[in-house]
Amino acid sequence: MAAVGAFGLGATDVTAATASSSSENRRPSASTAAGAPAELAQLQYFQGAWKSNGSRQGKPVIMTICALPKNDGFWLVLDLAEKRTSANPNPMSGQYYWGYDQSSGKFTAEWFDNSGGRISQTSPGWSGDELVFTGTATSGAVTVPFRDIFVRKTTTEYYHRGEIDFGQGWAAADEETVTQTSNSGQDCPSAAAGS
Question: Which stretches within the chain are classed as H helix?
Answer without folding.
Answer: 2-6, 11-19
